[in-house]
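Good morning,

Attaching, inline, the backbone tokens for the sequence recovery test we're adding to the shared suite. The designed sequence is right after.
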């Protein structure tokens, strides 16, 4: 996969995650780790699907209305 394809794929993932998890700031760092921040909550992982799972766990434990 070329650099442009990788960037486009990451951009698509960011868009999906941002739409699914409103209220979170989501990105991918230079180290390749995906991260999400909301208030004092931080999730950081090298795998985008693990990030999605962990954010769903946050959503089930602490509804966004309480954040």
């Amino acid at each position: 996969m070329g650099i442009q394809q990788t960037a486009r794929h990451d951009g698509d993932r960011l868009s999906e995650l941002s739409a699914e998890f409103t209220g979170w700031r989501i990105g991918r760092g230079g180290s390749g780790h995906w991260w999400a921040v909301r208030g004092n909550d931080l999730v950081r992982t090298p795998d985008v699907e693990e990030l999605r799972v962990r954010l769903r766990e946050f959503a089930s434990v602490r509804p966004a209305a309480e954040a």
